[in-house]
Amino acid sequence: MELESVVCNLYGASRLRPRYQKRGHLTGWMFTIVQCRCCGLVFVNPRLPEEHIKGLYDKAYFDGQGFDPYISLEEEAQKIAGVTRVPERISAVKLPPADVLEAGPGGGHFLRLAKERGFSAVGLELSNYAGNRLRQQALHILQGTIARAGIPDHAYDVIVAVEVIEHLPDPRTFFMEVARVLRPGDHFYYETGDIDCEQAREQGADWDYIRPEGHLYYFSPRTLARYLRETGFRVCYPLWFNPSRRIVSLLRQVGLVKGAEPCFQGRSGALARRLLAPGTGFLRGARTRWRCDRPGTPDEQTHADSQARVSRRDGHRDGPVAGVDLRRGGPCVE
Ligand SMILES: [Zn+2]
Predict the structure, then answer these.
(1) Which of 84, 170, 207, 324 is 20 to 30 Å from 220 by CA-CA measure?
(2) All domains of the chain, ordered by start, with CATH?
(3) Span 246-264, pLDDT tens digits
(4) Chain-centre distance of CA 235, in angstroms?
(5) How many angstroms is it from 72 CA to the middle of ligand 1?
(6) How much distance in Å is there from the Cα of 286 to the middle of ligand 1?
(7) What is the pTM of this model?
(8) CA 174–ligand 1 middle distance (angstroms)
(9) What is the DSSP track for 134-197?
(10) Contact, 96 vs 118, CB < 8 A?
């Protein structure tokens, strides 16, 4: 099998510098993890061919015998520990019976909890094996990718993707599809690793999250903010994201953060965001305008077109909203 070379998924640039080398757990092959010199995105290149990537998510994978040996343990641990973090956060932005779609529902832990809370919860599963297993548990599962599962525009109030976006061969298309199927002003909630976190920087290629057969992208707050803005989102800063809850409560007292609103949105939120930006390092990156210095290939032309389209949509005040929750450190159970 030959590995497949790709360009940067954010804008199509191909000036890349190698950052790490790491052996895949499943194949035993050595992979290179590169960083785009233009936008800073970190990803595996070259990588397993797309057809092969789809085949990674079989029974063996969900039993912990694929590229990530901890996958089955993590799901089990969440069940045993009764982890309700995600449904609680979703309930903070939307009340049941909102329409919730979870991409990559794994063992179905979130879908079951969301159903119990009265949400209309649907899963979207690429893997036939996982899809069938979830259907046997009486869960509503769509099969395929978000672009090919026949989902109409503006069909959902919340889209959830926990530990999913790092697996996608084409995150840009996924984010654009999420923006398409969300109702205006509604929410995209995700969790993924943070390649800029302390643990990642200290451990380099040894960081446990780097599993180059299946974890294809390693985002940072900065690269994710760029992606989301380019694909039509307004990025909001949920209260749980900010490390300094004292500042938040102070802002609430003086009326800059309203009631139980979980995100800093609108005009009052703008000042709150500005005040909190130095603490998170998040807005600074997001504000930087980025230009690709390599225009010209057909691929980049397509990217430029879609950019223009989404940036117009971005101008609308009621565009979809992405909630940010980057995990600090490796996979963990709260
Ligand atoms: Zn790039």
Answers:
(1) 84
(2) 49-195+219-233+288-327 (3.40.50.150)
(3) 566 676 677 766 554 445 5
(4) 12
(5) 33
(6) 14
(7) 0.75
(8) 17
(9) HHTTT-EEEES-TTTS-PPTT-EEEEEEES-GGG-S-HHHHHHHHHHHEEEEEEEEEEEE-TTS
(10) yes
